[in-house]
Each structure stands twice: as C-alpha cells, then as structure tokens.
C-alpha cells in the first residue's frame, strides 16, 4: 500500500513541528505508545529540547472545504476538525485508539468504517493536536477501481 517517492521530487522529507507544553507527555504519547521511533534528540540552553520521531512515509493531503465536511461527518459525526489534523496509518485502529486514550489522548470519535474503506478514529493528542488513526481495509488497487477514485 505504500509507494516510493518520485525520484524527480526535490522534497526529501515532510517534517511537522509541534510545540508541546508538556514535552514528556507528548513523547510518551507519540514515541512510547503510538510507537514512532526516535531518530534524533537534541538539548540546548535554557532546557531547550527537541526529539525527532520517524513516522514512516509522509504524504500531504489537500482537501477542499466540502471534502473536509464529508470527512468530519463520516469520521467524527460532524464534529469539525482542526485546520491541520495529523493522520497516522496503523495496523489495528481499534487497539491503537485504546492505547492512545489510556496514554492521555482524548477520544473524539470511536473507530468506524468509512466509505473509502478504512477504519478511522479521531483523538485529541498532547500538544493540542487533533489526530486520525486509520487502518486500510482494502488495497490501493481495490480502491482505485471504485467510482470517484482517481489515481495518476
């Protein structure tokens, strides 16, 4: 379900930078519970700290307002999403959702099957981030044969 980045792309990495008031809680949530591996960590003057976590393949999803409303309706019973929401593909959306709620995440919406054949949940994470966990239920090949799906 993953693909290699285009060799023509000048962009080599997408990095999302998050300021977390409770740095330790954010590390526990994303590194220790969600399972993002630590790539690097740095400390500086005045208790400055940063940890860079590996999150696998990155994509940038651009949606128009109508699509965002549709996603919000399907994924979170119409509760509006934040302007920027992070989505993580996981192997077991239900288990990951339970683990993250136990680690301090606030459940917004339980896992549910979407029309685009994924199992999605939504949470509020440390650092004020809204996240979606999704588990693909069909391969990209299966989904691309359905109406409304376009693939370059």
TrEMBL record:
Which keywords does UniProt give here?
Answer: Lyase
According to the UniProt entry, its GO molecular function terms are: lyase activity
Q: Where are the transmembrane segments?
A: none
Q: Which InterPro entries match?
A: Glyas_Bleomycin-R_OHBP_Dase (IPR029068), Glyas_Fos-R_dOase_dom (IPR004360), VOC_core (IPR037523)
Residue stretches making up the VOC domain: 12-136
Record protein name field: Lactoylglutathione lyase
Source organism of this protein record: Paenarthrobacter aurescens (strain TC1)
């Amino acid at each position: 379900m993953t693909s290699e980045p285009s060799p023509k792309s000048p962009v080599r990495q997408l990095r999302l930078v998050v300021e977390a008031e409770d740095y330790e809680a954010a590390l526990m949530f994303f590194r220790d519970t969600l399972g993002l591996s630590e790539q690097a960590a740095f400390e500086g003057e005045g208790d400055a700290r940063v940890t860079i976590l590996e999150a696998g393949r990155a994509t940038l999803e651009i949606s128009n307002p109508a699509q965002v409303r549709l996603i919000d309706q399907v994924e979170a019973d119409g509760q509006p999403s934040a302007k920027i929401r992070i989505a993580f593909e996981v192997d077991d959306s239900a288990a990951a959702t339970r683990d993250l709620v136990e680690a301090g995440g606030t459940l917004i919406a339980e896992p549910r099957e979407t029309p685009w054949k994924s199992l999605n949940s939504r949470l509020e994470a440390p650092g004020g981030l809204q996240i979606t966990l999704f588990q693909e239920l069909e391969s990209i090949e299966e989904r691309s044969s359905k109406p409304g799906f376009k693939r370059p």
